[in-house]
Amino acid sequence: MSATSKPRYQQLKDRIIGQISDGELRPGDRVSSENQLAHSSKVSRMTANRALRELTDEGYVERIAGRGTFVLDRRASSHVRDVQNIADEIARRGHQHSCRVLRATRRRARGELASALDTPPGASIYHLQLVHFENSVPIQVEDRDVVASFAPACLEQDFSRITPSAYLTSICPLQEAEQVVRAELPRPEVRDWLQMKSQEPVLVVLRRTWARGRPVSFARLQHPGSRYELSGHYRPNESEFAQATDVVQLEALSK
Amino acid sequence: MSATSKPRYQQLKDRIIGQISDGELRPGDRVSSENQLAHSSKVSRMTANRALRELTDEGYVERIAGRGTFVLDRRASSHVRDVQNIADEIARRGHQHSCRVLRATRRRARGELASALDTPPGASIYHLQLVHFENSVPIQVEDRDVVASFAPACLEQDFSRITPSAYLTSICPLQEAEQVVRAELPRPEVRDWLQMKSQEPVLVVLRRTWARGRPVSFARLQHPGSRYELSGHYRPNESEFAQATDVVQLEALSK
DNA sequence: AAGTGGTCTAGACCACATT
DNA sequence: ATGTGGTCTAGACCACTTC
Predict the structure, then answer these.
(1) How many whole angstroms separate alpha carbon B27 and alpha carbon B20?
(2) What is the pLDDT of residue B24?
């Protein structure tokens, strides 16, 4: 159809991400060089360079001057998946997980949702609403939007047996997650679902996840403040990696 | 000193980030256009373009085709990883940090606090209580216990000029951090300090930090739910991820 | 010597917004 | 009409690795 065609560097990125997702390119494999890509894709070298550079920033490949471009091993996705799935988390505590589906519908992407999921307005989006229980005590209200084209059979799943998160990872491993944590007062119906006291706040996690290089799902996870908390353990050595450059510059500037 | 000079686009980025941190460029301000930058910095337009594009990716500026490039007003939001120093965080948003010290006392470790900081009962502990402001709006109440033997001169510091976190890292780099995030209702005095509405919840971060292989500080950081959120971006390759678990030791401390 | 990534240039065309 | 960002090109020089 009409849709203004994507920029060439983006098309190149999409193609390479696709090859990685399909297993055509496996971790450690060498990706075509800039010159080869420029030739085969009929593109200037600068355009191929931009595609590969952005893939580097996004963690898909590693580039070594003089050697080449290599597919990275994203095996730690188990880490992301662990946090994705509240059923696993509950099982790890040795407790019983159960789940009630409140809603499972189809709707059309529009406005913020469309841009958050990077779909054209009007695209099909599945909306799920569930309550998760830990030993029969409600612990999470999950509001989830899923890009329909990524998970066409979404509405036929039995989400009392498999969580949406587990279902999504079964289609394709999730690559990336972006999340925001907030403290809010719940809406009355959420408060009832979670059996919360009248003035108790909720701990809200907004999470957007990526697979195959595209956002595929947006979740709003609400937890009773009195019964749920997030914890983490950090070691500077390892976390300095991601934004090392920025942080260093800023620290030098703000002395 | 001939150190391989940084690439030009990076120098340009550094300069603009510096202007944002210094307040020379304030949120909403217009940044010079690509053509202006190219001319003034004696650089090609593509190089200026790359600098501005990367600043966009990193959340510093917003670009609107046909209109220009504008400094973003970064919402109170910090990466869960580098929540070390709220002053840096605020500076990075191009805002003004200030601080009021409510309390700075010495007390004796006992019970849970002694075991959390791994000191013998009766050991000296400094207790600090501060309110941090972002552009004169209160954004954090910091309650911090510091092992006195680690920071003997703690009480002589001027914490309206250097944050406790910055002071601690100046003594010795922090090695490790353990943190828990919660949603709670604030105590009335905290609510007043943070100028919060009556039923607004706080986002609480409990953090224990290690240096020289020992826990040296325990902090309870409370933020107004309507004005503060934690955000994070996770890729499988970057290791640490906040996980939902029970942390018994910290729980008892936060009564 | 040949290939690789890293950077840079001086042009170019386009869609868009402001005047 | 002018200026803006968004993209793209066909060259170029460099430092580095491999052969």
Answers:
(1) 8
(2) 87
Sequence spans of domains, chain B: 8-71, 77-253
CB B35 under 7 Å to nucleic chain D: yes
Restricting to B residues 161-180, those with a Cβ less than 8 Å away from any Cβ of A are 173-180
Is the shortest CB-to-strand distance from A44 to strand C under 7 Å?
A: no
Q: Which residue has the tokens 């070390």?
A: B84
- Three-state DSSP class for A243? coil
A63 touches strand C (CB under 7 A): yes
pLDDT in tens, B72-121: 875 444 444 445 678 877 877 778 899 999 999 999 998 888 888 988 88
pTM of model > 0.85: no
B236 close contact with A: CB closer than 8 A: yes
B71 touches chain A (CB under 8 A): no
Tell whether the torsion through CA atoms of B14, B16, B21 and B22 is positive or negative.
Answer: positive
| Sequence-separated contacts (24+) of A151-156 with Cβ below 8 Å | A151/A126, A151/A216, A154/A104, A154/A126, A154/A128, A155/A104, A155/A105, A155/A106, A155/A126
C-alpha dihedral (B92, B98, B102, B104), degrees to nearest 10 = 70
Neighbours of A38 (CB within 10 A): 18
A253 closest CB neighbour out of B17, B232, B246: B17
User: Cβ B247–A231 below 8 Å, yes or no?
Assistant: yes
Q: Mention the CATH class of domain A77-224.
A: alpha beta
Domain B8-71 CATH class label: mainly alpha
The answer to whether the C-beta of B8 is closer than 7 A to strand D is: no
Nearest to A60 by CA among A194, A207, A184, A212: A212
Taking the domain B77-253, which CATH number applies? 3.40.1410.10
Q: CA-to-CA distance for A205 and B143, rounded, in angstroms? A: 25
Question: Helix H segments across chain A?
Answer: 8-22, 34-40, 45-57, 77-84, 86-92, 111-116, 164-171, 188-193, 236-239, 244-253
